[in-house]
Amino acid sequence: MNNEILLxxxxxxxxxxxxxxxxxxxxxxxxxxxxxxxxAYVTYEGSAFLIDIGPDFRQQLLTHDIKNIDAILLTHPHxxxxxxxxxxxxLNFLSDSKKIALYANDFTWKSLQKQFYxxxxxxxxxxxxxANYSHIDLESFNHNGIPITPIKLKHGSMxxxxxxxxxxxxxxxxxxxxxxxxxxxxxxxxxxxxxxxxTKHPSHLSLxxxxxxxxxxxxxxxxxxxxxxxxxxxxxxxxxxxxxxxLGHDGLRIQF
Length: 256
Description:
The protein is an alpha/beta fold. The protein is built from 6 helices and 15 strands. The chain is globular.
């Protein structure tokens, strides 16, 4: 049984191409420069985890013929990370309305309830998205016997979570990693890490900052995600990176 992460989307909140943009990245014909909003699908020890459920969720699952999700892990409540919540209805239908396990901190859960208020109010409508919420904080938790470790992050002024599953760590939308959390990131096979653009940003890592953090963590392989069109062409940026660090791209499958 292979443990694998599939990068469903590696783009920033507006995706690539951005609507109306004529830059060389948005006009590129390289499939690696076509980026949906950031999300990932992890299969580990027989269970399937979705990390974030953005507005491209439906398209991503149809593209990769994904029919099963055992649990959803949410990093934070920005719309590009939870905007596809309504589309879990299709998965509810496939499992006779079985609710999908959903793990998030209280901050994200409360925001989800506000943004999709209709799903959480008494209603005689039978086609609402259904999820079983479990509160998480910074302590490891288990789903189907699989330990998952949340990682404390800062996304500008907003709290955000990363996740470690086995020897994989997934860290998106981050400007700062708490010093204590680096202990959770030792001995990784694969690190997926935020890297928005080459210049500094108040709530994301720049390329230089991402390389610095990746070098410190020293996973066997690191792949960057949440990439904007300001980063430059995938083929050009790849040439600038150390051998064990690469840009991720939509549809990339990585075993760990």
